[in-house]
What we know:
The complex is a heterodimer of chains A (152) and B (717).
Chain A: H1 4-17, E1 20-27, E2 30-40, E3 46-52, H2 56-63, E4 66-72, H3 80-83, E5 86-93, H4 103-111, H5 116-120, E6 124-138, E7 142-147
Antiparallel strand pairs in A: 1-2, 1-4, 2-3, 3-6, 4-5, 5-6, 6-7
Chain B: H1 5-8, E1 9-11, H2 20-35, E2 43-46, H3 48-56, H4 60-68, H5 78-94, H6 99-113, E3 118-124, E4 140-144, H7 147-159, H8 164-168, H9 170-173, E5 182-188, E6 194-199, E7 208-215, H10 219-222, E8 229-234, E9 240-244, E10 250-254, E11 259-263, H11 266-270, H12 276-293, E12 297-304, E13 307-315, H13 327-332, H14 337-364, H15 372-401, H16 403-415, H17 433-449, H18 455-468, H19 480-496, H20 508-519, H21 524-565, H22 579-587, E14 612-614, E15 616-619, E16 622-629, H23 633-638, E17 644-647, E18 663-666, H24 674-682, E19 686-688, H25 693-696, E20 702-706, E21 711-715
Parallel strand pairs in B: 16-17, 17-18, 18-19
Antiparallel strand pairs in B: 1-2, 2-5, 3-4, 3-5, 6-7, 6-12, 7-8, 8-9, 10-11, 12-13, 14-21, 15-19, 16-20, 20-21
Helix pairs in contact in B: 4-5, 5-7, 6-7, 14-15, 14-21, 15-21, 15-22, 16-21, 17-19
Amino acid sequence: MIPEAELKRRLHELFAVQNLAVLATHSEGQPYASLMAFAATQDLGTLVFATPRATRKYANLLADCRAALLIENRTNTTEDFSAAMAVTAVGVVQPIDLPADSPLVALYLSKHAYLQDFVRSPSCAVVSLVVERYHVVDHFQHVTEWHLNQTS
Amino acid sequence: MAPKSDKLILSLSDVSPAQRDRVGGKAASLARLQAAQIPVPDGLCVTTDAYRQFLASTDLQPQILMELGRKPLGEMRWEELWDAALRIENLFSRTPFPRDLKGALGEGIKARFANRPVAVRSSAVGEDSKQRSFAGLHASYINIRGVRNILTHVKRVWASLWSDAALLYRREIGLDLQTSVMAVVVQELVQGECSGIAFGRHPVDPGLAVVEAVYGLNQGLVDGTIEPDRWTLNRRSGRLVSYDAAQREQIVVPTRAGVTLRSTTAKQKKTPVLADDQVTEIHQLVQRLRRLMRTDPDLEWTYRDDTLVALQARPITTAPSTSRDERPWYLSLRRSLGNLQSLRVRIEDEAIPAMEAEADALARVDLTTTSDHELQTEITERQRVYRRWEQVYWDEFIPFAHGVRLFGEVYNRLLQPDDPYEFMGLLTAQSLRSLQRNKRLLHLAQRIKRRQIRGAALDGELDKLFQDFEHPFFGLGHQAQDRERLQQWLTRLASSMQTPPSHVTVARNQLEEAYFAAFGTDDGETARDLLDLARASYRLRDDDNIVLGRIETQLVRALEEAARRHRKLAHLELCQANTDEVIRALREPAYQPSRNPPGRKKASPSRVRARQLLGQPAGPGLATGSARVYEDTDDLFALQNGEILICDAIDPNMTFVVPLAAAIVERRGGMLIHGAIIAREYGLPCVTGITDACTLIHTGDRVTVDGFLGIVTVERR
C-alpha cells in the first residue's frame, strides 16, 4: 500500500510532466473518449480542461456531469507493462463553464500558455472536474484507490 | 541563469566560416568579405542561439506549430499562407522579450551602435548557399534607430522565417517546422549617394554581366518601385555592351524612422547615376568576389564619399520556376505604398471608366436586328473584349486588392492587437455595390411584407433594380423566367423575414483614433494615405467582379440572342465559358453543342464521415443551423432563413442571399475572399479554407460554425 503522501507526490510528478489526458463521457450509456490538455490544482482535488462548445464531449457533459480522466506515462514499449503508471480520476464536472477570470483558468493557462487564444475564444468552455477518487495503476495490475472525500 | 551575451551576439569580424550554422548565410558572407579587406558596413550578428532562446522561454514554438498545423501546408492557398504568416508575425510582435535575453541583446547592440541608424537584415541558416538563395523571402529593415526599436525589428526578422514567401518556397529552402532557425545581421546604415545591384552573370546570356544603379538607397530598386540605370558589360573584359538610362524620377531617402520616396533633382534627372570609372570599379569588385566565392555573385553595393561599399553578396540563383509555377506571380503581389498608389490611379481613373464606357457602348447595340453572321462576329468581338479586361483584372485589380495586406502589416506592427484582424474594422461598412444591392432587395421585401407594393408597381421596382444592377448580380440571366424567380424569392424573403439584418456597426472611431495616435503627428499624412489606399483596395476587392461582370453581361446578352434564334442552343448554359460552343454552333449549321456535364453530385453513402473540420476563422461568432450546399443557382434560391451557406467559392453575384444565412463556410481560404468579406459586413460567423467543404457537408446536415476558432462541426441528418 502506497502511503497517501507518497501517492500525492507521485501524482504531482505525473501531472506536471504529462500534458494530455483521455476524457471519458457518455451519451445515453454509450461511452465516448477524447484526448484533452489538462492541468491539476495543487491539492489534486480538481482537474481542468478546455473544449469548444460544439463538441460531442461538451454535449455529453451537459447531459450528465459524471466523467473520468485517464492520465498515464506509457512510452509504447514493452517496459510499459512494468514501468508505466496510469491514473484514472473519477468525479463530476462542476461548473461546466468557468468564468474567464477564474483562478482555474489562470492555472490551466500557466501550464498551457500556447492555448491562450483557444481558451479566450467565446466559443470555448473551460471545464473543471471535481475529483472524487483516483484509481492508480502501476506494475501492470497493481491498483490503488484514493478516495478524496473520505475521512480516514 | 543569465544568458551569455557572447553566444547570442557575435561581431562580424569575429565570425568564422565554421559558425555558419549559428550566424546564417548573410552574416557568414559579410564576414568573409570583411576578412578579404573589402569595405562592408560595420556590424554584428544576433545568432540563432538568441532565436532558440526566445522561442524556448516564451511558448512560441507550440503556437507556431499549431498555427501551421491547421491543415497540410500543401493544401493551403497562397492567401491562407499569408494569413498564417500574419498571425505568426503577430504572435512574435505580442510576445515580449524575456528580461535576461532583452538585457543581453540590448547591451551588445547599445555598445556597438548607441543611437546610430542601422539596417536589420535576415540571415537565415541555409540561405545564400548556391542552392537555396532566393531574394525577398525574409525581412530586412533600413534606418532603424535605438536599442528598443532595433530589438523590435529583430523580432520581425525572426517572424519572417515563417513569412508567406518562405512558406511558399519551403521545400526549396528546406524550411522545417521543428528545426529551422534565424540569425539577424545588425549593420551600420551606410547612406550612400547612389546604390545598386550587380550581377556577375546575365540571367539570359552567360557571356555578359550587369550593373544596375539608382540615386539614394537601393530599397526602391530591390522592391521594384524604382527603375534603375542599367549597364550591360562583357563579363570577361568589362567592356560596355549597352547602357539603358531610366527616367530617374524618384529616389529613396532615409527619414526620421524608415525610408521614403522623394522626387529626384533636375541634375539627377539628366545625369547617369554612375560615371564610367565607377561602373568599371563595381565590375572589378564583382570579379574579385567571383574568385573569392568561386561562383558568380549577386552584389548589393553603395557609394559613400566615393568609396564603394559592399552591402551584401551571395551566389546568383533564382527560384526554380516552370510555366505552371504560380509562385513568382504571388510574390509579385507584394507591392509598396507608392506602387499601389500609382496602380489605384490607373484603375480608378482609367480602367474602370473605360470598362464602364465599353459596357455601355455594347449595351446600346441592338442585337435583334443582326444577321447570324453579324451576331457571330459580335460574339467573337465581345469575347475578345472580355478577355482583354479579364487580363487587366489579373494584372492590376488583383494586385491592387492586396493593398489590404500592406495595411494589415503596418497596423499590426504599430498597434500589436490581440486580434490580428482588428484592422479590418477600419475597412468594413463601406458602400460596396453588393451591399447596396442587398439593401435595396431587403427594402423591397419589407414593402412586400407590409403589402405596400405589388403588381405593376413591383414590376416597375424590379425593372429599376435590373437597370441599376446587372442581371447576373442576382445570380440570374435575362430570361423572363429568371425575373419571375427573383420575384418569387423576394416574396419568400418577405414572409420569412423576422428582423431585417443590418450592417455591423463597428467602433470605427475608436479604432481610427488609436491608429492615428500610433503613427504620431509627424507621420499623419502617411497614416492617412495608407488607410485611404486600404479602403479603396478593400472596396475594389468586392466591386471588381461587378465591373468585369458588366462586360460579361454584354457577352452573355449576345449568347442569349443566339440561343433565342437556335433551338440547338437551348440546353446550353449561357455563360462566358461556353462562348466557343455558341460560335461554333452558329458557324457550322450541322454542329450540335455538347450538353454541359451534369453538375449535381450525388452523395455516395459512406461509412467514413467528417464530424469536425478545421479551417480559418474569418468572421467571429457561433451559429448552428441546417446546411445549404451551393452547387448552382437553384441552391441559392432554395436557401431558407437561418440556414448555413456552404460553398466552394462565392462571388458578389451570389451574395444577395447572405442576409438569410446564419453563417458561411467556404472552401477557399483567406481573409480577402468574398465569403469572408460579406460575412464580416453582416456580422455572420464565417469559417474559410475548409478543404472539400462541399463534398464533406451535405445539404440538410446540422452544422455548427465556430467563427472564433475556425471550426465546423457536422451532424449528419
